[in-house]
Amino acid sequence: MERASEVAATIESSVEALVAVLDRARLAASPAIPPAQLRVLTIVAGSRHTNMSRLAEALDVVPSSASRLCDRLEATGLLRRVADPRDRREVRLLLTSASRRLLADLRERRSAALGEVLERMPADAQQDLVRALQAFEAAASPESGLGDLRTA
Q1: CA distance 97 to 104
Q2: pLDDT category, 143, cuts 50, 70, 90?
Q3: Quick check: helix, strand or coil at residue 47?
Q4: What single DSSP character describes residue 146?
Q5: Beta-carbon count within 10 A of 66 CB
Q6: Cα 2 from Cα 151, distance rounded (Å)
Q7: Are 78 and 98 in contact (CB under 8 A)?
Q8: In total, how many domains does the chain have?
């Protein structure tokens, strides 16, 4: 078996290729949405109860930085801020129909871009890739004992 550092270098190179494929799909949108703003939309899409403090925590930024990102998204019609009905001091972040369409379109473009790359791979290599990625995901899960990788 290859040394762990050689495997890590191969994975890092593959991840860079994967990110490039996904980024080309993102840039094909008109207009292209900056990665930080896309991350905000993805976080908000993942939770119906996202407020500014939860968003800042998820982004690992100060609330004022999160607020500026939301300002830009709100100005382009991709995000709405509304008072939380349970606590009017809180502001809940909501996707607009335009941002939901944007995210759905991006998922389709990413899927198509990945499909084009996968079609160039032999079927057995695709199956090996799926098994390897599933094993990696299992090993990286919190239950595996690795802890929080962000502190590393």
Answers
A1: 11
A2: confident
A3: coil
A4: -
A5: 24
A6: 27
A7: yes
A8: 1
Percent of the chain having pLDDT more than 90? 70
The pTM (predicted TM-score) of the whole model is 0.78
CA distances from 116 to 17, 22, 70, 113 (A): 13, 12, 34, 5
Which pLDDT tens digit goes with each residue over 24-43? 888 887 777 899 999 999 99
Domain, as residue range, for 26: 14-143
Q: Where are the alpha helices (DSSP H) in 33-122?
A: 35-46, 52-59, 63-75, 97-119
Task: Evaluate whether residue 30 is within a structural domain.
Answer: yes
Residues sharing a CB contact under 8 Å with residue 92, sequence separation 6 or more, in sequence order: 49, 50, 51, 81, 82, 83, 84
Answer whether residue 1 is part of any domain. no
CA 17 to the chain's CA centroid: 16
Measure Cα distances from 2 to 6, 7, 127, 143 in Å. 6, 6, 21, 26
Residue 141: what pLDDT?
Answer: 86
